[in-house]
Amino acid sequence: MNFVLVLVLNYWQVSAALFSLPSSWLWFLHRGEQEACHKCACAREESSTLPSTCGSPDEYTFMQYMECKLSEACDFVDPTGCRRHDTIPDMTEVDFVVVGAGSAGSVVASRLSEEASWSVALLEAGGPEPTASQAPSMYFNYQRPHSHNWDFALEPQGAACLGYPAGRCHWPRGKSMGGTSVIHGMMYMRGNPWDYNNLESMNINGWNYRDVLPYFLKGENNTEIGTIAEPAYHQTGGYLTVQRFRDQPQIAHSIMAGAKEMGYDTYGDLNGKNQLGFTIAQATTRDGLRLSLSRAYLHPILHRKNLHINMFSMVTKVLVDKEKKMALGVEYEKDGKLRRVIARKEVILCAGAVQSPQILLLSGIGPAEHLQKHDIAVMHNLPRVGKNLINHVSFNVKFSITNKTDTVTGFARLDVMDKVPATVPHIQMFFDGYMANCSRKGKIYNETQNFLHMVPTLLRPLSRGEIKLRSSDYKQPPLIYANYLESKEDVDILIKGIRLCIQLSKTSALKKEGLQLVTAKLKGCENLNFDSDAYWECAVRHFTNPENHQVGTCSMGSSEEDSVIDSKLRVHGMKGLRIIDASSFPVVPSGNLNAPVVMLAEKGVDIIKQDYN
Question: What are the two backbone dihedrals, phi and then psi, of residue 235, each rounded to the nearest 5 degrees?
Fold first, then answer.
């Protein structure tokens, strides 16, 4: 998932003056960033991502200039910045309170406010999305600690993440309008039809592939129907533009050729009839720029008088009538003051797989014993809140190369004995290469040596984790026990995926690119024979890659004993409270998560509209 030329080529098409004005770059370097950059209307002061990403200022002088120029491209600036000081008066009543303006919340607020008679309050803990994130090549900068990233640290565990400081992996989670759709890799993958059909075997009705496909289509504006996109599985006219990046370097096509040598289908629509194979993936972009869910669903409808957006508003709890088992509204903190907004109809949590269960627990909804431990009054004993945490996990297999790569992905079955149909993959493959986000001179390649990472990703992990409260203080992040790789079968499948990567690297197409496996042993595994199964097990346990596809912590199901919400996304045993976000999925789909979350939100709002006629 590398976007090297996307930043350079596509931004040049928007602002072609950059390379034609080298003197302005020199002037910038001598004058200093604050004097050189001009502020757009609605722009918010944004701290640079470069120090935490690139190190010494001497190492990223060109990118300082780029970040400045991006901030001056006023079409990129989030217009919600003009509303950043808006505050809903305390005790205001609205019909729906939506908590979280991430991928799900942006869709939910947009679609609910289509009903002119309904008033909707959208509360977001962060602010406007950062301007520089619009350049796809800059996405990695926001994976590091930053004001736009919650940067959750996982609790240390004995089976994974052993090679990182204190044995902790981290989860980047977006803290701004658009949420994690502002900092993720933008790949548009829906998962496998079996993922959804299998929900019926879990007594979850209304969510098979036939039921959900219309909601994938509803939000989509696919610009490549009839070429890469199969017409029967795609649509135009929705809010969310889906298209491939225009820059497709030769190495991407060499990967396709190598996959074809191995017998895989290539260049197909992996959101279509067949998910197995390799392709140059489509992404949620528009005209070469990132398209966050806020930009897609909220920016076009900011004029609606019935939609009230409150930024920098951190929800502390849901207000609950214990006797009636009813959600009354939410309490939130803004500008150091606690405030309340009342919901006449419903509170809808869209805070994601980490913070939706945290908010429920802080509200007294969850396992009674855990709540009592933190002196939280039990409003509703719901044992499964925070349980069933699932995430894709992967590993970087490093190769040296003389070229660079692009948004290539593939889905493959492995020699694994299971009951999954033959049309369902075991792993997804990503490809990471050189990125220009810390370029010193504006080069789109590394001046010394380039590396390519093939990243086999476990699609159906057996290991399960959970979310717990650290304390009753809403400002404290929760305890996250990911429990990665506790199942030996998860490790075995990842090792088979690594073997597949090495096999792909040996195809004639990739040999022509000079691709060579890096054989330097990883720290902590020096005493093991390189390329043995024992070595690779050590490697994946030390340098585990958590993907950003967390689900399950408020999952759908048939009862309070096995889940948190029902098939209509209503919290079991409660009135006026739903959860519509990634936490609602009982299992993780076989692919990137953003498209399934958009589908879930589209379908969730239709369910609400049907319930209220």
Answer: -155, 160
* Tokens read off for 526: 């020096």
Q: Which residues contact 20 (CB under 8 A, 6 or more apart)?
A: none
Amino acid letter, 557: G
pLDDT tens figures, 78-114: 888 887 777 889 999 999 999 999 999 999 999 999 9
Q: How far apart are CA 515 and CA 402, in angstroms?
A: 8
Note whether 450 and 403 are within 8 A (CB). Answer: yes
Nearest alpha carbon to residue 534 among 500, 495, 487 = 495
DSSP letter (8 states) at residue 520: P
* pTM recorded for the entire structure: 0.91
Distance CA 555, CA 203 (A): 13
What is the number of H-type helices and E-type strands within the chain?
18, 25
* Active-site residue, 85 included: no
Chain centroid offset of residue 354 CA: 12
Out of 170, 542, 549, 572, which one is annotated catalytic? 549
What is the Cα–Cα distance from 44 to 604, expressed in whole angstroms? 33
- At 586, give phi and psi (nearest 5°): -75, -20
* Structure-token match 């660079």, residue found: 404
Q: What are phi and psi of 169, to 5 degrees?
A: -85, 165
3-state secondary structure 463-492: CCEEEECCCCCCCCCCEEECCCCCCHHHHH
Token representation of residue 518: 């890096």
The tens digit of pLDDT for each residue in 235-268 reads 999 999 999 988 788 889 999 999 999 999 999 9
Tell me which amino acid residue 236 is: T
Alpha helices (H) along 305-422: 352-362, 368-373
Spell out the domains of the chain, with CATH numbers in brackets.
1-77 (no CATH), 83-129+292-389+551-581+601-611 (3.50.50.60), 245-280+393-460+486-543 (3.30.410.40)
